[in-house]
Structures are given as C-alpha cells and as structure tokens.
Amino acid sequence: MIRVSLAVFIVLVAIFGLSSCGEKEVVEESEYIPEETIPQIVPGEMVFVPAGEFIMGSNKEKDNIAYPEHKENLPAFWIDKYEVTNKEFLEFSVDTGYMGEGAKEGQDWRLFATIDKMLFPVAYITWNDAAEYCKWRGKRLPTEQEWAKAARGPEGNIYPWGNEWEVNRSNTYEAGMNSFMAIGQYDDVSYYGVHDMLGNLQEWTGSWYTTYKGNPKRDPKSGKQLRSVRGLSYIYRGKVGNLTNRSAQPPNALYDLSCRCAKDATPEDIAKFSQSE
C-alpha cells in the first residue's frame, strides 16, 4: 500500500473533497510478497549520465521528423530515475499554492491524483507546470538531447534494454493495460538505469521542437512554436515507435503528458564518478 503522510493526506482531502468508502481488499496469504523482495522505488532519485558522444535520430525514413541519425556530444548531467509522481506534484502544490494551468478548465492533474495513485506519474500538466515543478526542486526539464541520451545510452539503442523488441518489458500498447501505471513497475530500464522512458507516459522536455540538421523536410512548425515531447505511452505501439520517436505539443497542451527533471553535473560530481570507474 502506498504510504502518504497524514499532513499530505489531509491536504489532499481538502483539495479534492475526497471521501473514503468501500470495503478493504483482503489479500490471500498465498499472494503475500515479503517487503524485502520488492525493489525500493524512491521518487525524485537521480541518475548520473557521464559526458560524451551518443547517437540521436534514425535513418529509417527520410520524411520522418526523427531523420537523420547523427551523433551529438553532451557534458555530464543528472536526470530523474523515474517520472514525477502525483505525490511529488502534490507536495509542490501544497508548498507553493501552484494549482496548474488546467485548473481553470477543470481538466488537470488533480483529476488523476487520487489517494491510491500517489506513485503514479503526474499527468495532464502543461509545459509551464512541468517547468515550474522542476524549478521548485532546484532542477530543470531535460533537453531533448539529454532525454535521448539517458533513454538510448551511448550506442543509440532503439529500446531502453537494447535493439530487440521484448514484449511486456514496457507499459506500451502491447502490454494491454490501457492505462498508465505506478512508476517502476516494468523492466523498462535504460543503459544508465533510468526507468519508464519507452512506456507509461510521454514526457515534456525543455527544448523547442526543431527539425534535425540534414532533414530534407521543412516543417513549418519547427522553431519556437511547439515543445519537444519524448517517449511513448500505454496507447502507443512500442515495437514500432521505439525510442527514436519524436513528437511535439503546444506548451499549453493538456493531455496525458508527464515529466522528469534534470540538472547539470558539478565538477565535484564528475570527479567522483571518474574515480569510481
């Protein structure tokens, strides 16, 4: 059962007007899983990604916005191991009074932040919502390049685990869940140890959507109009879309979009991880 502090629970009830009812589910003795065997999930935990060259894009289709495959080089950075959860976004809202840009329309993250879904990724947040949350954490949204490197690794894997499709390793359409799930429930883990980058929910990045250099397609929407969105979700076919997939949305879009945060690595971080290699 997801544990939430009493203070957060009281605020959640006040915000959403929730009431608890119904019978408690009884877990059969044969279904019991010892707590020590369950992998520990720590929302907000970050993963270090070292500096270096990596592969972006795809040569599969020249008329695709992911064309062409190319190499880029990034300095070291940190990225959240998991997508931002409802619990984390609720803490942000309580601390700052920030309700989200969708609040006026009655279509925002609070619709999904029920007490039993505190470890689900926050959804229906705009780009500004995501950016404000990361700023509150002392972080920022990852650039599209950082997101791609963290997801694909230095060799440009098309799935987090490699280049061969494996069913049920990610919460994409093939898993048949028809909904996003709590973070870290699938073996959807990248080379660097980042979770849920192929499935579950698509994620905002800090970058404007632009066509890659060398792409013959001149997209009129390229530039400072749309924000880059990366990853797939439970409604997309992961086998076909994979990690080369690119999409973009207006910054005020209110769909089932989530986020994770990033931050620059310090010289001390770089020295520490260099010594451990």
Structure characterization notes:
The protein has a single domain, classed as Alpha-Beta Complex (paralog of FGE (formylglycine-generating enzyme)). The chain is 20% helix and 14% strand. It is built from six helices and nine strands; from the N terminus they run αββββαααββαβββα. The protein has helices at residues 6-16, 86-96, 127-136, 144-152, 238-241, 267-276, and strands at residues 46-49, 52-56, 70-74, 77-80, 202-208, 227-230, 246-249, 257-258, 262-264. The strands form three sheets. The protein has a four-stranded mixed beta sheet. Strands 1-4-9 form a three-stranded antiparallel beta sheet, with helices on one face. Strands 2-3 form a two-stranded antiparallel sheet. The longest helix is centred in the N-terminal third of the chain and has 11 residues, at 6-16. The chain starts with 5 loop residues before the first helix and ends with a helix. Residues 1-38 have low confidence and may be disordered.
Describe the structure concisely for a colleague.
The protein is α+β, with helices and mostly antiparallel strands and 277 residues long. The chain has helices at 6-16, 86-96, 127-136, 144-152, 238-241, 267-276, and strands at residues 46-49, 52-56, 70-74, 77-80, 202-208, 227-230, 246-249, 257-258, 262-264.
